[in-house]
Amino acid sequence: IGETTIRDGIYKSKKIFREDPNIYHMNKSIYTTCDHEHPHYYFRSPKMKMIQGERIITRPLYLYIFDVPIIGLPFAILPSTSGGRQSGWIMPSFGVSNRNGTFFQKLGYYWAPNDYLDGKILMDFYDEDRIELNSSMRYIKRYKYNGNISSTYKRKLNETNNINDLFTNKSIENFDIKWIHNQQIDNTQNLNVNWIYVTSSDFYNDSYDLNTRTQQKLESSAAYSKVWSAYNNRLSVSLSESYDLNKEVEIPECTALDENGLCQQQEVFFRNRVLPNLRFSHSNSKLFGQGDKWFNSIYFNLSSQYKGFQKIGNIYYDTSENGLNNDWEVRDTSRYDNSLTHNINFSMPTKLFGWLNLNPSLYLNEGWIFRYNNNGEEKEGFKRRLTGGLNLSASTTIYGLFGLNKFNINSIRHIMTPTISLNYTPDFSKRLLGLDLGYFSDDQNPNTNDDYFNNSMIGSTPTNEIRKINLNLSNNFQLKLNDSLQTKMDFLRWNVSTGYNFIADEFKLDIIKSRIIYTPNSKFNFDFTMYNEPYQLDENLNRINKYDSFPKLTYLQGSTEISLFGNKTITQNENIKVDTLNSDDKNQLYNSNKFFEPEIGENTIWDLDLRIGAKLQKTIINDNIGWDKTLWVQPILKLNLTERWKMTYAGQIDMIENQIISHNMYFYRSLHCWEFGFKWWPSGNGSGFLLNIRVKSPDLKDIKLKSSGGRLFGL
User: Which pTM does this prediction carry?
Assistant: First the structure.
């Protein structure tokens, strides 16, 4: 029996015939990546042709597990190179469901002609529902551009489950196209494209992938940018579209009747396009150049932006007689608006007495529109508006040091940063310096309908005069440890902020907001956010314009993260495996349906990440003042059950209602040349299970046994 090894593949054959120096024909051959004396699995073929350094062609091919034949294929192509990507077939997974019948998923071919281009096409087939083709192609030219093009084609049975009707008028076909392209034209120019097209608004509704199924808003864009670094200038041009699939099929409700007793016509826009967005900007620069004079510290930045905005949708007319049946007649409609804005900011940051940071600033915003509001009706015409305001901020940093020299702590450092900022914005509905600004048709008693810029692309005219002071105090406490490196660590942060509006008619003082973050070590932290109300409250929790003797707590939100683990006794030279994922990534992975090996060290018995969140908000409950309470726990537990068995448990528990919101268990085992994963969702709307057994070899990871059940996958 002849035997050879290529990469991690082992080939055995009873008879070998060499046709060419690099071409071999083999009879009664097997192929496996299992190096066990008696392989746990292998592929057997009566005829096999090996083109050395390229590929191996078999006809037919049978998969055996523990000498039991599992599945056969009429032919297959296997890799036969020392490395790199190789074209070849992608093996499917099979299953049965009550909804779609017998099916297979992800049967396809991978094509890799060179190092700069590859592509694949996959087919899903459900014998009582549809056929689906997924294709994609990636391309790259180093330091120049990269991108990918993908498309999904579906032909789905309509009001029948007879697969013989799949290519008749009893079926529906739809497709989508996606294109992503990123190109660096040179060091100063970039081009980015993200485009998507779909033929039907319900195209993604029957996808087995949850993220795809919930994708109901399509975003497309194309952007070009040019930078002149020496002059701090930047130019960008972009086009974009937002397509709301739900709104396209949304039927409006009758909200009001006209004088004829019919529902008033309604507009529903489902496509929003920016055609185009042209922006030029100049970043912070000295206004009067270099020098030692006071005016040499004056900086400015400016920008100009032209935006064209198109909305596409439907107008609904009521054709019923009584206005109650919502017998809508639908007509297409579109609308195009454009605007031009200019912004310029001046600032003069300076330091006084060596410790006080001052930064006065002035900002001016000018907007041009070409369609304006005239007492509630739109009119074509040009209007311009200039607004602005003044800011002044002052801050300093104060340091304090407390010697301790106990508990391995050398000292505690306190860094305190108080900041005061003053803001002034005029009321632009009134005369300014005796001048009528002309932003309202009636400047004596202005209201929303009198504002020429109401519902315009540059927004309504600011009518609230602001003279406000904002106060912020940031505290940072650091520990300096008694170790050889004199390590410093932040263990407590406390931030408090509020504001005072001098010209408000009432409630001049803002709510006092504070946040505390306590981190005693890397395995444990607390995060609290609190709102304190400085004014008295009546029996309905409405504010009374009287200060309270002590600001009352009205809102509290807190969370903590705890990481604990238990280890076996380990020697000094043994390594401890550490999970490098952050808590958010862990929570997403361990609650997904992905196949993975849990990150837990060989000498770790258990590893627990515990997230606890709580919220208290003062509210009215059954005509009484009470607290709306929320308390949840998110545990992620990892266990080394045996030397080869690993288990994880992840979930979320509502501690107020004493119920499990969601939870799952995942079992993983290494099987020498295979790996096993079983995930179980015991309860809830998403209850079900997922079983995966796949080959460890990177060449054969698409070869797997997969079984699923329950409602989790919509099958």
Answer: 0.68
